[in-house]
Amino acid sequence: MAIQNNQNLKVLIVGSGLAGLTAARVLREHHAVTIYERGGVAVATGGQGIMIAGNGNRILTPLGYEGEGARVGGVPIHRLRMFDDKNHQIQDTVMDLKARFGTDILGQKRSDFRDELVRLATAPSAELGIGGEPATVVYNQAVVGIDPEEGVVTFGDGTTAAADVIVVADGIHSRLRPLVAGEGAPKPQKTGHLAYRVAVSVEAANRALAEANMKPPVWWRPEMFNNTTLVLNGPPGSCRVAMAYPLRRNTYFNFSCIMETRVSSRRTTESWHADGDRDEMLEYFGWDEGLKRILGSATEVKCWDLQDLDPLPTWTKGRAILIGDAAHAMTPMQGQGANLSIEDAEALRLLNNEHDAQGTGAKVRREDVPAILRRIDSVRRPRADRALELVRATHGRFTGHSKYEDKSDFFMGYSGIYAALAEKEKGAAKHGEDK
Ligand SMILES: Cc1cc2nc3c(=O)[nH]c(=O)nc-3n(C[C@H](O)[C@H](O)[C@H](O)COP(=O)(O)OP(=O)(O)OC[C@H]3O[C@@H](n4cnc5c(N)ncnc54)[C@H](O)[C@@H]3O)c2cc1C
């Protein structure tokens, strides 16, 4: 049902990544939303994959996201097969995620997923069947400073813009984080792992195998890999694992090849769009000739030193709030960084005048904003801190087994900000009774 176009608050979002774009979609029906992005239109659209799980999908679908539709071609993943370095299958698990959480995990090309989020943030309201106005994205406009109390952002050329709400979604290396969380706030730290990331076309990989007169490895057949996550463990003790899953209607495969940095000779780099060294990737992950050919068929190799962020003392100050990796960066060992970012964005619903602070349905006013942001922080930050603990617990025991120990109730069972607040209030009431 379309709501009235009332453009209540002025919202400025810093960063057009997955968090910023989702936040724009959540807020655009009610407020005037502008995103400032330091990069160009094609920013952050590496061809590699991303897995959006039940917690992300259940939030995005009612917002108009068509993960399995023609545009995105997301692949439902409902099976996990694990192999040792000799290609012996050592685990085959059918995942009942749809029955438990209402949706499968969807494997998607990162660029397809981001394009869909851009659509949700900026398409005409009539196309989405909603009220309000589309968000505006201003590319090539870096934000260099903010005044969280006054609600002012400052750009590289010294000009400024005023806002009622500032959503800081500028990623793991957030420049603005200290202005919200304090100058002493933690900074991201390398965890001692690196990930080579490639998206392989199934057709190109098959061609590479045929040219080498090789039979495909046992796991590289449609009946083995369609709708399946493959976990390929390296030689025992090597601490190397390749995680693979299908994208774009099973026509592409994402490989995240993860190893410990201490055994690598590569130069480290801060950018997660940095090109990786193909030869080094093949040296470390070519324990099987077939795997080597398949990885070698990728047109682009990216490499990223895995990093995470210690818990922050706060995500909010005045009328500014941190979301996404700026608030809670973690390694991809559970494939949850983006999903938690989508959860953060959904929590901004509290700013929509569908539910004001008193539950009267009145419009949220500028003066209400700081208290609403603190309310969001009170449930989002503890959840992200717990998520970080769970993800970090898998770092030391580094095999495919640890990644898929079942933590899905915690991650995929999340049901949005209102349920989280109700849970917190129930906990507080119980604590009061127990005293
Ligand atoms: C190898 C790997 C695999 C992953 N796989 C998964 C997965 O399967 N599932 C999952 O849920 N998560 C996954 N993640 C995590 C996920 O990618 C991140 O959590 C997610 O991208 C964070 O989104 P974000 O919007 O916070 O940050 P980003 O996507 O980094 O976006 C930040 C944006 O802000 C812009 N920006 C930065 N500074 C400024 C500034 N000063 N002014 C204006 N704009 C600025 C940047 O250009 C960028 O566009 C993976 C991560 C890695 C490294």
If you had to describe this structure to a student in words, what would you say it looks like?
The chain has 435 residues and is α/β, with parallel strands linked by helices. Helices cover 32% and strands 23% of the residues. The chain is built from 16 helices and 19 strands. The protein has a seven-stranded mixed beta sheet. Strands 8-2-1-12-19-18 form a six-stranded mixed beta sheet. A hairpin with a 2-residue loop joins strand 18 and strand 19. The radius of gyration is 22 Å and the shape is globular. The relative contact order is 0.17. The protein binds flavin-adenine dinucleotide. Belongs to the paxM FAD-dependent monooxygenase family. This is FAD-binding domain-containing protein. Keywords: FAD, Flavoprotein, Monooxygenase, Oxidoreductase. InterPro entries: FAD-bd (IPR002938), FAD-dep_Monooxygenase_BioMet (IPR050493), FAD/NAD-bd_sf (IPR036188).
